[in-house]
């Protein structure tokens, strides 16, 4: 198991970014890497609340962790601090022992030059998930998040 961290400055207030972290419709839009589509099956954004999400590859060659072309994960919100931090504990739904295990993702929001610094720390990633794939997926998610919350008139 390994950990990864990635950050990005977003030209939006912390409150707007936080709302996107705890809204099922927003999650279905920003947490999905390019070449995939998302479906939120369950989402109860409160401490102890549960969630379940599937990401399905558009291309038939995409290999999923849970099914032929799909990655499904479920978990719970361990901590929610409005406009500051979201801690999610989750795991893939898989029969593959190499992909099993509980992961924790902590997203921290801090003020940064009139916007928000978004730091994602992902711990407990199974070794079977290539680090480069995790990094690419997280980078895409942060870019999608920025596009979702930044004002349309921002030159970004």
Topology:
Blueprint: E1 2-10, H1 14-21, H2 24-30, E2 36-43, E3 50-57, E4 70-81, E5 85-92, E6 103-112, E7 115-125, H3 131-149
Antiparallel strand pairs: 1-7, 2-3, 3-4, 4-5, 5-6, 6-7
Shape: globular
What is the SS-derived class?
A: alpha+beta
Number of strands: 7
Q: Which range best describes the helical content: under 10%, 10-25%, 25-40%, 40-55%, 55-70% or over 70%?
A: 10-25%
Q: How would you name the oligomeric state of the polypeptide chains in this document?
A: single chain
Proportion of residues in extended strands: 35-45%
| Average pLDDT figure | 90
Report the radius of gyration as a whole number of Å.
15 Å
- Strands of the widest sheet, in order across it, are 1-7-6-5-4-3-2
String of helices and strands: EHHEEEEEEH
Span between termini: 35 Å
Number of helices: 3
Low-confidence region ranges: none
Major sheet attributes: 7 strands, antiparallel
Structure description:
With 156 residues, this protein is of the alpha+beta class. The protein is built from 3 helices and 7 strands, in the order βααββββββα.
């Amino acid at each position: 198991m390994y950990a990864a961290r990635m950050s990005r400055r977003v030209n939006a207030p912390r409150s707007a970014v936080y709302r996107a972290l705890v809204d099922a419709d927003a999650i279905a839009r920003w947490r999905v890497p390019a070449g995939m589509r998302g479906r939120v099956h369950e989402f109860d954004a409160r401490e102890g609340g549960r969630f379940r999400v599937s990401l399905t590859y558009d291309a038939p060659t995409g290999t999923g962790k849970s099914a032929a072309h799909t990655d499904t994960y479920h978990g719970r919100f361990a901590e929610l601090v409005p406009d500051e931090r979201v801690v999610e504990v989750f795991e893939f739904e898989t029969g593959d022992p190499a992909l099993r295990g509980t992961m924790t993702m902590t997203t921290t929001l801090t003020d940064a030059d009139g916007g928000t610094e978004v730091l994602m720390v992902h711990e407990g990633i199974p070794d079977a998930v290539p680090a480069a794939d995790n990094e690419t997926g997280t980078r895409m998610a942060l870019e999608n998040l920025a596009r979702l919350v930044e004002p349309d008139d921002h030159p970004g």
